[in-house]
Amino acid sequence: MSVLVYTENWKGKFRKSTFEAVSYANELAKLLATDVVALSFGEVSDEELNKLGNYGASKVLSVSGINKGDSQQVANIFAKNAADASIIIFASTYTSKMIAPRLSAKLKIGIASNVISLPSSTSPITISRKAFSGKAIEKTIIKTEKAILTLAPNAFGLVECVGSCSIEKINTSENASVLIEGEEITRGKISLAEAEIIVSAGRGLKGAENWGMVEELAELLGAATACSKPVADIGWRPHEEHVGQTGKAVAPNLYIAIGISGAIQHLAGVNSSKVMVVINTDAEAPFFKAADYGIVGDAFQIVPKLIEEIKKAKN
Ligand SMILES: Cc1cc2nc3c(=O)[nH]c(=O)nc-3n(C[C@H](O)[C@H](O)[C@H](O)COP(=O)(O)OP(=O)(O)OC[C@H]3O[C@@H](n4cnc5c(N)ncnc54)[C@H](O)[C@@H]3O)c2cc1C
């Protein structure tokens, strides 16, 4: 019995969340005295597949000839390759949210999402998971012998190891039920989902015309830009930048929040960030309770100073 891990790629390159899921699977496999098998879908080069070995995968099953945007088809093939798996690991991503529940229903095994640590027991599988938009930690016992776990972003981190993996190619001729003709990134140089740094701003910025400094700061840091919900609702920024409970969930290494109060619905989408820096005039703003670093002050004074200092440091 192995630990099977779903490895998600974007245009043939694995995501950071994938390497985190493999790292987690590896630690879990050590607990169970077994191996990690990785399952990859779509066209991925051997060089890229081999990277999974650096995080603990000992074998990679690489499925090609598939429409990987068709989650039903992916779940069908996944189920056929899961017979030897005792635990199946996913990173919590948009894609895994479509595949993991289908797989759970097909295999009739329990699923726990947003898992934040290794199981405290493996028989029965007992884990801690984020609940209520991250406001509570829930202890979940999975009653089926096998289980599917989806890992909350940044919950475990990347753990590199010295290792190599064998690669087995599987070519499928299974029929797809959905055809995706093409994908086009509509806006932004760096995707929010993959951004290591995000500069985000809220209603404290007073108007769309003031976003120049936010974009300049983001550009200097190689960051993506984001915003609070009301900012997108008013039309100061595009809706695809809206983060939070009803927007995108993000998990960068650094999240800089400028003029955002830190309402629970906003925090729900950003509190998996590794480090949060908050700039706000109101020392009582709720965001300061969640922040790692806080600056009480006017964004219109602080952000230009930050930009100036970063430019100096870069020169
Ligand atoms: C069901 C539901 C779902 C929601 N989902 C989301 C969601 O997904 N994402 C989301 O963001 N919100 C969401 N909201 C809205 C959320 O409750 C807050 O209203 C919203 O996050 C507030 O946005 P804000 O912080 O930009 O604005 P405000 O609450 O108006 O806060 C502005 C902040 O800027 C500060 N400020 C003012 N001037 C300056 C200055 N010059 N320099 C620095 N700081 C300054 C103020 O002190 C204040 O803290 C949701 C609400 C509901 C009911």
Q: What oligomeric assembly is this protein in?
A: single chain
Determine the fraction of residues in helical runs and give it as a percent range. Answer: 25-40%
Uncertain parts? none
User: What is the terminal-to-terminal distance?
Assistant: 55 Å
Instruction: Specify the overall morphology.
Output: globular
Residue fraction in strands: 25-35%
For the CA atoms, what is the radius of gyration? 21 Å
Spatially, the strands of the biggest sheet line up as 7-11-6-1-4-5-12
- Could you describe the largest sheet, including whether it forms a barrel? 7 strands, parallel
CATH superfamily of the largest domain: HUPs
Q: What would the average pLDDT be, to the nearest integer? A: 92
Helix count?
Answer: 9
Count the E strands. 17
CATH topology (level 3) name of the largest domain: Rossmann fold
**Number of separate structural domains:** 2
